[in-house]
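Troubleshooting: if your tokenizer reports a length mismatch, compare against these two reference records.
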Amino acid sequence: MRNLTISLSIFLCLITSAYAQISQGGEPLFSKENFSKSTEISTVELPKVDVVKLLKEDGEEASKDVPLRFAYAHDVNLNPKNSGKWFTNENGDKFWLLELESKGAKSLNLTFSNFYLPEGSKLFIYNEDKTDVKGAFTALNNKESRKLGTAPIMGDKIIIEYYQPSLVNENPSLQIAKVAHDYRGIYGLAKAFGDSGSCNNNVNCAEGNPWKDQIRSVALITLANGSRFCTGALINNTANDGTPYFLTANHCTGSDTSNWVFVFNYQSAGCNNTDGSLNQSVSGSQLLKKGAATDYSLLRLSTAPPSSYKVYYSGWDATGANPTKTTGIHHPSGDVKKISFDNDAPSIGTFNGNTVDTHWEVNDWDDGTTEPGSSGSPLFDQNKRIVGQLHGGGAACGNNLSDLYGRFDLSFPNLQQWLAPGSGLKKIDGYDPDGGGGNPPTCTDVTLTLKFDDYPEETSWTVKDSKGVVVKSGGTYPNQADGSTLAIDLCLESGCYDLTINDTYGDGMCCSYGSGSYALTDASGTLASGASFASSETKNFCVGTTRVVATTTKGTVNAIALNNLNLYPNPTTNILNIGYKIKEGSSISISILDIAGRVIKTKSFNHDIKSGKLQLDVNRLPRGSYFLKITENNNSVVKKFVISE
């Protein structure tokens, strides 16, 4: 390994979306083959969880006015100084690894009470066979609160991997305070996916089509210690500026929401019963206002969901006009997103004898229902505007009981300073950050067909975009019949992707135990297919557009070791320095992209052959945020930089 500078040309690559702010994509970097000494990872085994006792307690408190518990939160005190193990490779790059095990857990999630990553470092969290990877977390995830919660990672054993390149001298702060043991099975590992009642409607069924925009606003929430669920929704303001205001229920909210995790687009890819992905999440929020009478809480997320999530900010009506019919969108029992309809006008009601006439009462759902876990979910009127959020009620599949939603019009005087400052408006429509008046994003329909072998419970899959971010995923399938076939409808934006099929036993889908196979198709034919492999197989495919192959002017050159990339100063005013290390034998390309992910043209750049750095002149670009993307063969790294005045 040596430092070197090379002449580069800027090539325009087709990119369709911006980069996620909660997770930057990519793969874990640690490999035992890189180290000659023993690389046994230190394991912390957590105390046994009494599931029978927890389920009994859950049965005693089961109602919608108590957030649904799905996990037991272990209190821990773990950090790089008192646990785990450090490794240093021959290049001077450092790794800290810690393995956590809570036997019998269906998934695990973490709460960091102190979280800070230096610029250039990365953190990954993944299960033992790397079928579920969260990260990379980077300096972009640092928040003023210095707290971070994570979405659940499937399995009862996870590995935390911190990577610090040799160019980085600053130390991280990683204090783990909670490890939540999922005993219900959010991923469907022990329960059947679809733990909610059978009368619930998947949002991607035909009845949900008129509500595509509003569906994109609703998120599943894991609360402060990572052990309970609620639902809520992004809500628009009169400036239509995408400020990430979020409405949920007061009874879901404690005093601290800085560790909450908001999971968007957790829903079946189609109408059929398949599980969704938990990979599109935002961590952390600020509590702005809450009230008990109408059971509301207004939050501001720590960061706006990135454009790749395709979220929507729902409109609202604070006039107090009685809706003629209502719709609820929610996550019952922590399940994938569902939609419910009542074709009658709600009545004005009172919750459990509290302040009178403060709620809308949906007397009997005509199609669908709500359940614990639906708490805080929005109630929409016939004009697709929010008029309340779920407080509680007795509705369930098979009964005619009612649900009560806190009235938004009565909450509004306390929310007006954020949602409608100085405007006098009492109702507004929703806001789509992608424009087009709330039209759903354009995409290409593809179908993944899985013909299972004799063990469907071993099969899972992911689709990752060109940045390594999981955009679709599914499995395993313990409730599918042996040898059966499942067709999964997906909709993907134009671009190139990697489809990975996993088999937990390591014998593929064919032909030791049955003749299974998979095929991904679109209107033009087969995009990817296979059957015989070991633990996993990855196929690259593109939809909607032709890939542009980027090369350097000199062909194959010494290429940047992508993990050692460093940008400085950042923010910058005119010159951006790119520091790196390189190795022999690869091709590279560089692109600068705007915040929407569109490739833009750079005006000029200079390079210093001796110092191992490249200088880009960005003086003529408007001030704002940008991304620098460098690709080495099929591997890419993306860094955010800011041009200031």
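Reference record two:
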Amino acid sequence: MEKGITIHFNILATIALWTISLVFALTNFEVGSTYESKALIDTYIDSLIVKMTLLLATWIASALVLSKLFNEIWNRLLSDIFNVRQINFSESYAFSILMTWALLS
């Protein structure tokens, strides 16, 4: 068995975080509230499926860019300053996604 964070783990962890966020959003939704969004995506795109697909693709792209940036900062700066081991992209993805979710929740 491979020791460490793998792509399979990252996929399962991401799905678990999305599920937790969805359940939280559904349980805290106020039925009586009327909210009119002025967001650009709501102005130009009417289909809910297209909106969700676009937002999901944007989320995935930003997660990958953030993970790569964190990976480079860790491997080029922090590993030299604090004498810690370098990390791979899977570990960078797991750490940055979990920390972002924890800080924004």
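Descriptive notes for reference record two:
- Helices lie at 7-27, 40-44, 48-81, 89-104.
- Residues 38-105 form one domain.
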